[in-house]
Amino acid sequence: MKYAIKNYIGKNKNTRKTKAKTTAPTIRRICRVDETGQERFGNSERPTKISSDKSITNGFLKCTFLPKLKENDVQKLASDEQNLIQIQRKNAKTESDFYQSLSQLVEHYRLNPMTTILLGYPYNIALALDDIQKQLKNKVRDWKEILVIEEKGKTYFTSEERYNTGAILYYIPIVPLYRLSKNPKRKQAVQLLQSVCSYLYHIARVPYYRKQDSYLFWMYEMVTEWITSDDENEEMSSYLSEIKQLEQIGDFMEQKIYNQNNLTRFKDHLKSFKAKDSFDNDCFMLARKIFSLYQQYPNATIYQNLQSNTETEEYESDTVVSMDKYVSFCSEAKGLLFQTLFEAVNSDLQEYATMQEPRVIKKFDGRNITNNNLDFENRLFPLIEELIYILNNF
Asked: Which of 325, 348, 350 is CA-nearest to residue 217?
């Protein structure tokens, strides 16, 4: 199957900015082997030389005396020695925690790390980090980064897996499904597609544009106000027709996909389906994949792996493109009204700094590791793209 033409957020793909965390735990930065400027411990000044200011006997001059240290020099040497011991103990603890956490991470991801523990601190840690990052990048789907965290005197890894939505607007057009339902030859295909949309509406919780709490509801309202207030718009009649369509057909189709029979009879529709052509076969293949996903993840939603503000402090409502802004049902993905809507949405979303994407953060601190993964998202979002393509190209 061909992929849908994608509507990307922003005309230019800019690097997303991530806000720095401002609270504990701290992130330990491991120095590279070739870094300079490291602190040296011990007194670097040479002992004060003691000499006589008077002529004395040769025998006296042959005697050797230990240098006399000032009281503050003695205290400084003792303090430096104590600091050195403390730092050495802390480094040993950090190194021990590091390899314990590394062992847990390696077992979880089934990696084959190189032996570095005998190379000496901190070179061994720097080399181990470089090796593990390369393996994670090559072997673990959706892996984003690892961090070394120091929290309450303990050092451990965290690993982040993130699903990349690709800055795409996943807007599912509902008016084409209405048009398709008017074709008696496509009755079975319509039943399958309505079951798919019902799953996305009820289970995956994709927002519907006619609901007042949805982002697109207010964007459509804003665009409609712009259009109707322009008395000199030569295409006003076309706009008004599309506006009427998005409201009336949108409300009607919401009632259709809201019907729970679409879900209860999903399996029956698949069993009784007989494809007549390639379009029917595309609908069947898509519906079968969605039904399989529904069976495996009966309660999964598009929001299940979004980190909350309180957990990460990375996302703020005024700086992040939340998922409900770029995943939604819409009226139609063609025509003058959609083009105006797309430009308005694009302009609005470019004001944000980051994208809210599904992600899983795993802590390797000796406790049980979560089995959460992004398999659901890796399967669902491509299927939404297929659905958009089918509805736009039948």
From this structure: 325
Cα separation of the two ends of the chain: 13
Neighbours of 75 (CB within 10 A): 11
How far is Cα 300 from Cα 294, in angstroms, rounded to an integer? 8
Neighbours of 309 (CB within 10 A): 11
Cα angle, residue 76 at apex, residues 70 and 77 outer, rounded to 5°: 95
Alpha-carbon span 156 to 364, nearest angstrom: 6
Give Cα 166 to chain centroid, integer Å.
11
Alpha helices per DSSP H over 209-306: 215-228, 236-258, 261-264, 266-272, 278-296
Residue 9's pLDDT is 67
pLDDT in tens, 265-320: 999 999 999 999 999 999 999 999 999 999 999 999 999 999 754 444 444 567 88
Closest CA to 327 of 164, 165, 210, 171: 171
**What does residue 85 show for φ and ψ, rounded to 5 degrees?**
-65, -45
Three-state DSSP class for 364?
Answer: strand
Top-confidence residue, 273 or 60: 273
Omega cis (within 30) before 122: yes
> Which tokens hold the place of 8?
């990307």
| Tally of CB atoms within 10 A around 267 | 13
Q: Which residues of 228-240 are buried (b: 16+ CB within 10 A; e: fewer)?
A: eeeeeeeeeeebe
> Residue 384: pLDDT above 50?
yes
Q: Is 195 exposed, middle or buried (0-12, 13-18, 19+ CB in 10 A)?
A: buried
- 82-121: buried (b, 16+ CB within 10 Å) or exposed (e) per residue? eeeeeeeeeeeebbebbbbbbebbbebbebeeeebeeeee
User: Which spans in 54-186 are helix H?
Assistant: 58-62, 71-109, 123-139, 175-181
Phi and psi for 199 in degrees, rounded to 5? -60, -45
| Three-class SS state of 187 | helix
The residue ranges of every structural domain in the chain are: 26-34+72-151, 170-393
Residues 131 and 115: their CA atoms lie apart, in Å, by 10
